[in-house]
Amino acid sequence: MIYYHNPLSVGSYTLSIDNIVLDIWISNQNAKEIIDATIYSLTANDGVEIISWEGNKPGTFRNQYLFKLTNDCSFWLGIGLITTSIMIDRYRLEFNPNKVSDNEIFKIIHKLLLQYCRKSLSHIARFDLAIDIPVDRSRCFLVKDRRLYIERRHGVEYTQYLGSKSASVGRVKLYNKTAEAKLDYPLTRLELTLDPGIPYEKTNFPTVYYLKSTCTNNDNIKMTDTERFILNALLQGHGTINELGRKTRAKMEMLMTYYICQVSISSKIYGRVLAQLDRYLPAA
Asked: pTM of the entire structure?
């Protein structure tokens, strides 16, 4: 069973914030020393293992810390962004709220950073929104758009992506969460990497459909691989139903009329997601 921190239910699927990249600035030298001392003191805590290393490439952080927690989860802290010089006031905290929001070690670090940061400069650079759909992966369809499309297969399973891997925002991932998390129930995850600073109207949400698991009479929907291929082609805009044979056309019309649902996020729901992000920012 998956644990969610403050999930939002939208119809049959569940939304949660699955990753946050928080950028903050701390210029007070005394505050920096307090943060360094706190990190050092936590190394003696049985509830955390801290792995530290130094970065040396532009775009990385000079001092980096991985906090490995007892529940087999972790979060990361970077200090001193390397550009043409080292921006010693720049800090970055990356974490998964579903995993660490209730952890005491995380709370200590997060609270310290918010306490001493420059509020006007601190912001969330990006976040991952997870949308969990309670159906088998084979029943979900991602429609290609102008973004780079990649499909990776592993056995009978496959993961679809929109957007390049190097893109910090706009990446889309659709995959089998049942297999990834070793669940005993069907679950497909749609994962979106978003910038909270981009208005809802300008956010490039993907088009994703899913096939309901059962019909209204509780009979399982039977689909062959060929029928699934045809349905996917139709959803992608390749060809029309009228080009199909009589029996196949009737099956596709039935599926698309009664059993195909589109994953959609209203501006109201997205506003509630953004409101959750505010909880991780310094108070105004």
From this structure: 0.87
Q: Where are the alpha helices (DSSP H) in the chain?
A: 29-42, 97-100, 104-116, 177-181, 225-235, 246-254, 267-277
Which domains are assigned to the chain? 20-125 (3.30.160), 135-186+206-263 (no CATH)
Residues paired with 71 in a beta bridge: none
The tens digit of pLDDT for each residue in 211-233 reads 876 544 444 667 788 888 888 88
Collapsing DSSP to helix, strand or coil, 262 comes out as strand
CB atoms near residue 144 (< 10 Å): 14
Q: Containing H/E element for 284?
A: none
Question: Which residues, other chains included, contact 190 with Cβ-Cβ below 8 Å and sequence gap of 6+?
Answer: 130, 131, 132, 133, 140, 142, 172, 173, 174, 206, 208, 263
184 token code pair? 């005993």
SS3 of residue 107 by DSSP = helix
